[in-house]
Amino acid sequence: MKMKNFVGLSILLFVVSCSPSTTVKGQSDSTEKMKNAATEIMLIATALVDYVTDHGEFSFKDFPFLHKDSDIYNALCPDYVKSLPISDPWGKSYLVICGKNIDGSLYGIPSGGGADFLIFSKGRDGEAENWIYDPENGAAGLYEGNDPDKDIVLFNGTFIRAPKSWGIR
User: Fold this and answer.
1) How far apart are CA 66 and CA 62, in angstroms?
2) Is the pLDDT of residue 39 over 80?
3) Quick count: other Cβ atoms within 10 Å of Cβ 87?
4) β-bridge partners, 143
5) Rounded to whole angstroms, how far apart are CA atoms 136 and 86?
6) Of 36, 70, 105, 158, which is the most exposed, with the fewest CB atoms less than 10 Å away?
7) Burial letters for 99-108: b for 16+ Cβ neighbours within 10 Å, e otherwise?
8) First CA to last CA distance, the chain
9) DSSP 111
10) Residue ranges per domain, the chain?
11) 30 or 169, which is more confident
């Protein structure tokens, strides 16, 4: 229960820091969409953390595209969250891979255990980046600037691919 509260609190703090309010003068629509995507990804993550806390592991069969008929969506709604965003701000499906379905083939992320999860948006261009995760240096995937064509990737509650300016460590 303590871990659930810690992860939930860190997710809440991130969501509050990235929540869109009014657009700051000079802040582009693309930057705002990136922050919205991060907030929605954290919402999905919160529901996944709650689910795995109750069930111990994930056993979803269909992945990675989140849609209203998917195992993931139906397992999480409405018990863990009223509804889930299924598309990023650019209109493309969020991708969610859980448990043993994380097989090491995407971004070089090592094969997953039953409670691991990966959530990502391929950004505005909808193309997966040719980027490899470094488990020894998780911050290596953080990038300069706010390029909306870059992927936004969350692994087990931590952004491993996102703008450095978001203050993620």
Assistant:
1) 9
2) yes
3) 15
4) 163
5) 31
6) 105
7) bebbeeeebe
8) 24
9) P
10) 2-19+28-166
11) 30
